[in-house]
Fold each of these.
Amino acid sequence: MEYETPLFFHVMGYAADAEGDVIDMVSGNPDWEPPESLREGLREYADFDADRFQYPPSEGIRPLREEIAARRGVGVSQVVLTNGAGEANYLAMARALERGAGSEVILTDPVYSYYPGKTTMLGGRAHYVSAGADGQLDPSVVRAAASEDTAAIVVNTPNNPTGAVYPEATVHELVEIAETNDAILVSDEVYDHYDLSGTFTSALSVDSAHRIVTNAFSKSLAITGFRVGYAIFPPHLVDDAKSRHMLVNVAGSRPAQYAVLRALQETDPAYHEANRDLLRERVDLFTGALESAGADYVEPDGAFYVLARFDGYPGTLETVEQLIDQAGVAGMPGSAFGESASSWLRFALVTPRVEEAADRLAEYVA
């Protein structure tokens, strides 16, 4: 079986091996600080008794699951802590497909490039629907594509790579489409703290047995290396998800989960607002420089990516390597996110050098 292998690690390695100064805008690794309370939680954990260094409950430590459940308005038994949002999405898609209610997975185009590989790995068949130039998804397009063979509809809001944030009406209609076709809406909401539009709506706002919400603290707490994520399942789907999680991972990191719990309990909302303000400033700097150079771009409403387009520079791996070698800026090829993004390049705004990066790109392609 051949899997669709994402290009992220190839591009990151190529940029790391390049000669000269390269501004890294490849992957969504926040360059800002995690909450101080998270660091304090790690320091505290180092002095715990030895029994706290052993296996945690497979589904995650109960205090963190209780904290998540209280914040999201669900039962604690519905929450499974996972190895980042990546495993959360894997478990959600697996539960959708193994119900015997179809083998098709509806994905958007552009698409976050790990979803297709998971679909193949789980024995599903991808069916792509266009999300449009701005990344917004028209529910009528999804409704037309859905059928009795649809097992899952997988969406990401705020969206990577487009920055689109789906309005409440779209989210509610996507849940209704899943219900009508006995499918599962898998809503990946890992960028929920980076909604710049004020319009984000979680799929949890709809009480339904046909939706699974996935998330992680990788982005919201700037800890992509901790791998603490979670999935919220309908009650009838959660037990088998816990079993699969146990068989694949046994359990997650107990110290990381404890530190996240401390951060959730003690971090002021001002921490998140300051990070959104930083991101808004970077969006303005980057897109302003692109606009001055006459480049096309997609203004993001959330997440922390910008799609940019330069005449004569298609969104291919070859173009990305050329820009690394000759312009000193590393981004991702739009082709990695689907056919509709093949003329675009995606840049992650996770460096204080975003304006310099845009200036370098503009100067090189001029």
Amino acid sequence: MAAISCRRHRRDSKSIHMLFSPQKMTPFTILCSFILLLFTVGQCFADDDHEMEEFLKREYSLTKPYQAVGPLSSSHWELMGDAMVTTEQVRLTPDMQSRQGAVWSRLPCHLNDWEMQVHFKIHGKGKKNLNGDGLAIWYTKERMQKGPVFGNKDNFTGLGVFVDTYPNEEKQIEAQKKRYTPSTQRIFPFVLAMVGNGTISYDHERDGRPTELGGCNAMVRNLKHDTFLFIRYVRRRLTVMIDIDGQHEWRDCLDLPGVRLPKGFYFGATAITGDLSDNHDIISLKLYQLTVLRSKQEEEDQEEEITIPSVDNMELLRLGQTEEGMSGLAIFFTVLFSMLGCIFLVVVGLLLYGHWNENRRKRFY
């Protein structure tokens, strides 16, 4: 597959070179080459998916009839707080005030590349913006510790993906009789991700904005169809997608390279309620091991031991967050299209100028 892919890409590159040769530079060939370039870039991303194979890891998965959940040492999952198991779900919190609950894996995960598919449900009697607070999916060094971050401890070490259902910052601004600017206003519920190194605090009052890696809005409350969250970590790239529309289609939420997560951390799910409440249910957590083809350079990089979670180029990431909801892939294509658009305009301008200059010379003969 990889060899075929390389040959195809070399053939496409040769076609692009021929289209861009000086003898064939016409507006039509420029447009064709532009389309071919976009197709080639799309194929590069598609090939990455074809190079992966996935295997369900049952020891890290939580599924019906939840026989592996309980206080026994032989169980793979352990409950905490107000969480309880029913025949249909693991209910992290009931629709009651001031509750928090969790379910944590007993086994540390030592996989290089993995994918977590979360089947969840958030529902309750509260109306829009009168519910809370949300749930979180974790891959962290610590486990079974209560706290204010969606039922887990603050200053955690690892990855947290949050489904935040209550706009704390928006309510504070409304109380101060101020208004959001259109560039900063969000629609809740909102899904966001954060990587902590044990010293970074989650800013609850600002809904985690100062430390988030990115996110998207997700209207997940009181839906009659199933809702899913997809978290993939492969080649040190973090991808988060959601399927909440009942169409069985994944929608991009976050795509970020340069995320460094150590091995040997624990998976978990937590939820919390305050003055407002909801039922927060986990129906399944399915973890897949990904087998990925790597280059020699990637194999060497993989051998580097990571002990502290981190994200490369956090300063550039902060600049990229000026536009809410844009993933790393969306930012890449925005920059790519902008550059190609500028090149296209310059080439067309040069061709038009050359045509005009040639016609002007002809008038003197």
Amino acid sequence: MASAPRLKIDGGIPTQPGQVIEAATALEHNGYDGGWTAEHSHDPFLPLLLAAEHTSRLELGTNIAVAFARSPMIVANIGWDLQTYSQGRFNLGLGTQIRPHIEKRFSMPWSHPAPRMREFVAALQAIWSAWRDGTRLRFEGDFYTHKIMTPMFTPEPQPYGVPKVFLAAVGTAMSELCGEVADGHLGHPMVSLRYLTEVTMPALLRGVARSGRDRGDFEVLAEVMVATGENDAELAAAIVAARKQIAFYGSTPAYRKVLDLHGWGDLQTELRRLSLAGEWDTMGSLIDDEILSAFAVVGPVDDIASGLRARCAGVVDRVQPIFFAASRDCVNAALKAFRR
């Protein structure tokens, strides 16, 4: 009988340019399968050029880049170049962000996020098709239009194919869309195993089926919070940090649906109230052990690899652990079972 596919292990790549090379090479040396950047205070794409130059095997991706802060043409061009330079190792991970950030931070239009994201991905594929296959670019949608592509603006051919597109999704509508139009799903840390299996995966599979593909054609990544330490004091500090992070996520209305599934919806209201008052420490104290264990793998270093497998194996294809207050040596020790 064929064995189940191996659970891939991914790590984060910092976006500060001076830290990228050391972090990316360490991930590859320690047997990680992939390294991902996130769009916070620095550009998420630029670091991956450095990472590609200094690694040879590691998959590289954005988790996430904000789609609606850019046009499909800009993203298509960046994705093509990173795919070429990395020799086929680039995964394009996109997310919507939320309306206030799109309109007030990026000064870009916001409307109908799921239909807009569907069209964004379709526009990417149309542009890449024009470059790869020489098809005429005639993309006209409700949100994006791309109808000019001359030889001067067409990048050189490359043999690696187009990047895989991953979409971040929590709600059912975006998850179904992800399963239908993307190559993979990027999960959020504020998703419990129960929510993943009862809500996210069924929605993804409905989308995959609608696209005419099989589950094996689609990759699912879970981000999982981890609280561990090499001694009791480090573990205790990590647990406090994890409680605060869960409380921060829980204060956001977008994740109330996750708490509702567990019967913890009223907690979101209280966390929201406390966040507006700046009561961050108090918020963390409301995350009891049951809630903590629903969203994080907690325990001594030697228990973390098995805990991650128990949470993810057979459900998702790859996991990106998020450690709190842990040294690099601690992280490496906790994940040694995943090394090649």
